[in-house]
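The instructor's notes for this session suggest beginning with a concrete chain rather than abstract definitions. Hand out the sequence below and ask the class to guess, before any prediction is shown, which regions might be ordered.
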Amino acid sequence: MVIGNEVIEPPQKEDCGDKKCPFHGDVTVRGQLLVGRVISDRMQRTVVVAREAARYVPKYKRYMRGTYKIHAHNPPCVNAHVGDIVLLGETRKLAKTVNFVVLKIIKKAKEGEQ
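After discussion, reveal the predicted structure:
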């Protein structure tokens, strides 16, 4: 699968049977590609990913660091867990707060790390 300049290989697992999976379902990935850390995987097939960003505040002439949370669909063939660094792709609206899907796990979390 080619998204922008990124070539993403589908997971080695066979068909996951998820209609919202970009590899085995009917969801197309278009728009932004983001990288973040999974901070919660307690929902069914959905993870919460945190991203840190610095924003300039002209009044104080300094940068302010903020953490932004993004809800993303987690297909069974990818199956990301807390602490993993993941690549997200923007899709159509999949649920009330879900606009992204987990495409691949860049770095797995170590045992006991969160």
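Then share the key points. The mean pLDDT is 92. The first strand starts at residue 2 and ends at 3.
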